[in-house]
Design goal:
This protein is mainly alpha-helical and about 300 residues long. It has twelve helices and no strands.
């Protein structure tokens, strides 16, 4: 008779939300979000003839606030329960507002190509920040390689920025870099604070309520005004931004950040500028270079490496 103790059953591995890779449904959802955000750039451009940029941001935030709050009322989502999220909510709201203020103003000084390259440093910042604030979410070498491939793909699509010849262009580039830090910081704070335990609708409302006055103030300082009633095209694209992009896709994004690895989810945002290029081609008739297909291949290969479960 064996004297050895019986083996205890081994519990199946559990993917904690901090490191959880995206499943097939989550991947499909985040790709849809990036597609929506890529078309958002076109939406802003197509509404500019009637509504200046900072006023667009202000109006979409006000409309989205009403819609998200209405959704919460219908669905009985608790918004005023004391859950310790107020300070973090105000902070991410201010960062959200500053991010978009810097993006819109930075585009006045620098090119859209340079803006895309510098703004999409954000996924790298999230990964580096996760090493400090979310140690369990550290990237393996193969995931760093995947992140690098995705960034290279974006460079292939847009081209490597040439040295800035105008000091104003350098200022615009710096604005985009700071905006990238605010974007990444918002993600990390949501993931590491008590906001991670509240509803994504409440997280979105914090950002809308804090950022809308900030954007309105910037529009006023910039002297922006609407001189005539916007035409149907401008109203339709404004509706797309407020109803779909902010009220729906941003809320879903925060739900994904809560449920899955922040680093893995953030890496998928490299798809957004590629979808923006495609949207510019199909909607605005902008040229599509052969390098675009190579860029898509680089980004896709990189995302496979980033999201591959650890064996």
């Amino acid at each position: 008779m064996s004297s050895s103790a019986p083996l205890e059953p081994v519990a199946p591995p559990i993917h904690h939300h901090t490191t959880r890779p995206l499943d097939a449904v989550a991947i499909a959802v985040v790709v849809l979000l990036c597609l929506s955000w890529g078309f958002n750039h076109v939406a802003v451009k197509l509404a500019l003839h009637d509504v200046p940029p900072m006023l667009q941001a202000t109006i979409r935030s006000i409309v989205a606030t009403i819609l998200v709050a209405g959704w919460c009322a219908v669905r009985c989502v608790p918004l005023f329960r004391r859950d310790g999220t107020l300070i973090a909510g105000i902070v991410v709201g201010a960062m959200f507002g500053l991010e978009f203020i810097l993006i819109y103003q930075g585009l006045v000084y620098t090119t859209a190509t340079r803006a895309a390259v510098f703004l999409y440093l954000a996924p790298f910042i999230v990964v580096i920040g996760s090493r400090i604030f979310l140690p369990a979410d550290r990237f393996r070498p193969s995931q760093w390689l995947g992140l690098g491939l995705s960034f290279v793909g974006m460079i292939v699509a847009f081209g490597l920025p040439t040295p800035a010849l105008d000091p104003r262009q350098t200022l615009g580039d710096l604005m985009m870099i700071v905006a990238a830090f605010f974007w990444a910081g918002t993600t990390l704070i949501i993931k590491t604070s008590r906001l991670n335990g509240t509803s994504p609708e409440k997280v979105m409302l914090y950002q809308l309520l804090v950022s809308a006055p900030m954007m309105a103030l910037c529009a006023w300082f910039a002297g922006e005004r609407i001189t005539h009633w916007p035409d149907s095209q401008a109203l339709a694209w404004m509706g797309y931004q407020a109803i779909w992009v902010v009220s729906v896709t941003f809320v879903i994004w925060f739900a994904l950040i809560k449920k899955y690895s922040a680093s893995r989810v953030s890496a998928f945002t490299f798809l957004t500028p590629l979808f923006g290029v495609a949207a510019g081609h199909f909607v605005l008739g902008e040229p599509l270079t052969p390098a675009f297909l190579a860029a898509v291949a680089f980004v896709a290969a990189g995302l496979v490496l980033v999201n591959r479960p650890q064996g």
